[in-house]
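Can you give me the bound-state structure? Components:
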Amino acid sequence: MSYRKINIWDNLDWWTIALYLTMVVAGWFSIYAASYDYDRTGMLDWSGRSGKQMVWILTSLALGFLIVMIESDWYEIFAFWIYFLIMALLLLTVFVATDIKGSRSWLVFGPVSLQPAEFAKFATALAMAKAMSAYRFNLLEWRNFARILGIIFLPMMLILLQKETGSALVFLAFFLVLYREGMSGFIIFSGFCAVLYFVLSVRFGHVFWMNETPLGEYLILLFIIAVTLFLLYNDKKGRSRHSKYVLAGALGVLIISLIIAGYVHTYKLTWIALALIAALAVYAFFLFIKYLSKRYIVIMLFSFCSLGFLYSVDYVFNEILEPHQKIRIEVALGVIDDPGGAGYNVNQSKIAIGSGGLLGKGYLNGTQTKLKYVPEQDTDFIFCTIGEEKGFIGSFVVLALFFTLIIRIIFLAERQRSVFYRIYGYSVAAIIFFHLFINIGMVTGITPVIGIPLPLFSYGGSSLWSFTILLFIFLRLDASRNARL
Amino acid sequence: MNLDFDKRRRLIILFITLIVLIYIIRLFNLQVLNSDYKTWADSNAFLKKTLFPSRGVLYDRNDKLLVYNQPAHDIMVVMRETTSFDTLAFCKAINITPADFKKRISEIKNKFLNPGYSSYTPQTFMSQLENKEYGVLQESIYKFPGFYIQNRTVRKYNYRNAAHLLGYIAEADKQDIANDNYYARGDYIGKTGIEKSYESCLRGEKGVEILLRDAHGRIKGKYEDGLSDVAPVSGKDLTLSIDIDLQAYGEELMKNKLGSIIMIQPKTGEILCMVSSPAYDPSILVGRQFGSNFLELTKNPYMPLINRAINGAYPPGSTFKPAHSLIFLQENIISENTAYSCIGGFPIGGHPACHAHASPLSLTSAIANSCNAYFCWGLKALLENRKYGSRDAAMDKWRDYMVAQGFGYPLGVDLPGEKRGLIPNSQFYRKIYNDRWNALTIISIAIGQGEILLSPLQICNLAATIANRGYYYPPHIVKEIKDVALDGLYLHPRKTGIETEHYESIVKGMRSAVTGGTCRGVNISDIEVCGKTGTSENKGKDHSIFMAFAPKDDPQVAIAVLVENAGYGATYAGPIARLMILKAIKGEIPESDLGLEQRIKNTVILPNVVQKN
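Here's the bound-state model for the whole set.
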């Protein structure tokens, strides 16, 4: 392999760096506003949160500089070393960490506490990119796929052992990368269905619709019917001329059953839905006999597996899980309010954001966040301060910044010639996106409350360092994209 | 490769765009379209109001109400909400001068005096408003933005007695708040007595009410119709073992004297009365006068805030002799018939001296006449007995028996700050005498002097132990907690490890002390009283001590009386015990004793002390 001498500083993507700096500085101002106490400490008071964050920002910049100064090949050469080092650190943390608010994920060094789980992200991204860029690697071979799953699930398990569920879930973001690299979309779709079934059946498990119909179960059955019908109707080869009639018939049955339940006599609507699914399965089987196409077997399998999963979730949730685990899940999904009130907190956060209006109340003039109604308002709930004080305009700008950053990283990743560089770049984008998805969803009451920080904005050294490392390694790799001939 | 990477890339970008779009729509809906959140949050939409539970009330053993609650009103202020208003009218309404107003506001804002200050949260402007002022202010409070009235309750007392037992409540200080996050600034907490030791039962659980306000601070109703509200839980009521009439009578007898009276029901360990003199009226430590009254009490040279019954430690004097005798008997150092001679005192070293009586004396007579020499001989025989192997082993054996009888450690009474007294062991003497000591060095402990220190409660507990012939229930003041079981500590007897027959010998001695010994003045014709006098030598004039129980064969009460600097045990402590026993068992004082009662009440025994400033 030969190299071309290039000037790294000319080749760095300064657009991304500008975005990074903008977000970090905006985050710092937000942290100052969130921890601001009427006529109290100044911005650079080092005992305050904003003062400390300034220290983290300055050290992050130094860290970024250092990363850029390192030869880009080193990241590829040492990828596995870094990965196993961090895994060892995670394992160590499980045993030596002290309990801080129920989580055992903090290593304390004098005045500084670090969360190794944060650093597992870039290490896993490096290891995954390295493994997948190996010569003659094919993701579709199950042996290779299992190796990649191992690389992803090892840190997840270790972090779960530290009782940091939120940080562990972040690793699911890598599946987006795997999809880009050729993993069957069916896996993502199955995962999506599993989460959907689980959330719906638990979230609406105790809600009854029209007196007798369990809402969660019914919604899932409707979803299964919809997917089956879509697959049958979307049969491009036009083998089934009946599909139009089947679609109309199924919709007719559903509507009539609803009308009867609503106006004539209430009964368990799920029976009708189950009967419909069975009928569609029989129809698919009939088509299979007729045309001998695998496609129809897949359709049947989908409905059977869905039903199997749905009813085993119910069983596992009600019979196998311990009561306290049940309660945790129910609280996370907002089925019940815990005494501190997960629901209450989300409500507070929604009120803080909602009260911002179009233009916001003005910097440092937020009342909800100043009154400490919102929990964790300088870490996981930092977005509340922005929403309250900067209004919709501010929220929009922050979302736009993130969107631009993520799309920019994907663009940069796609222009790489090296597979290693591309996969690493996609991982960076996926991780940032997953954080954004969960964090903003949580504060606006869309996703369950899973405590993970808003990248570059939330207070915290580990988080800021980790995202800096993640991003700057990619920038360094990108800068030498043309170095290799 | 013919995989559709381009399509996949576009799908991913589409997915990300979709999510961001959904969020932007969601935010637009929350922030621009939906106005509910704005109205809720406008000028801090929520008013979290603490609902204070009513504190548990206290009854005496005959269900007489001792302490209860009365509504009181605090004025709170949220500085950020105050706008210009008619200060003069405000001051007039609550009867303060504008200068007071200014001073109070600057105190609230001063972070040194008020470390928890925030202009966003309610601060106490004035606590415990008078009823009349409350009425006036209630009508005009709407004119003073930022000011609120917070309702809470204050303690009210039906009797002017038992202040030491009941204790008082006061605003939780920094330390209290740091120790227990239940408390917030301005909350009340039990500081002494029952109020402190049963704080967790009495306080109940605070509730919270979340109210919604509009931009002008007007209450618009409850948040989510009170779904998130938490109702307060009232504190638990307590029934004390105290008989308040007996307590009041004891305090009256002790007026103008220093000391204490304790009466225990031996069968249960329940304390019937615990007088500490000087006493004070508990109702003076309530309300706005708390500060000045408390200061006055702390300045009083006779220290009325001290509960002498448990916080005092005195040499027990001769009341300690029965405790010694029991050990001698149990360890076979003496038998009931052992006699020692006494001619004017203990002959070796000529100390301690003794008064004139017949010689030699057996145990019963020695107790009845409180012969000093007898117990010195006994102690010497114990410490020099070969069976223990060494002097130190003998000393520690002696100490173990003393501890088993309830000395040397707190008895565990349910009042804060009980003193443990002092029962030395061999190590203690090795240290202070540099290992050069023998029975004669420490002979004065034989007569309850020397290093021995007991609290009056421990002396009374000794009387109860003798009354029970060998066991005691840890003395306690709370008889019953509503809906909650009493601490198991008070339900199980503790044995002294000394046999019952030995106690009978002591009972005989204490009975003859009353019928024909040192305390004939306590002899009551129809109640068989057993007693023991004591004279506690100290730096000043001797303390007069007396312990007794009655009736002899079915003991109803055990009593200890200690009058500081009143001289010989039989002169004051004895007669006071006599009146208390009469009051406790007969319910009233017979005519023949009214003269004695009058004489005691009129006696003033107050040592001269330099007034502290």
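A couple of observations. Chain B touches chain A at residues 3, 5, 8-9, 12-13, 16-17, 19-20, 22-24, 26-28, 30-32, 34, 36-38, 40-46, 80, 118-121, 228 (CB under 8 Å). Residues 5-33 of chain B form the longest helix (29 residues).
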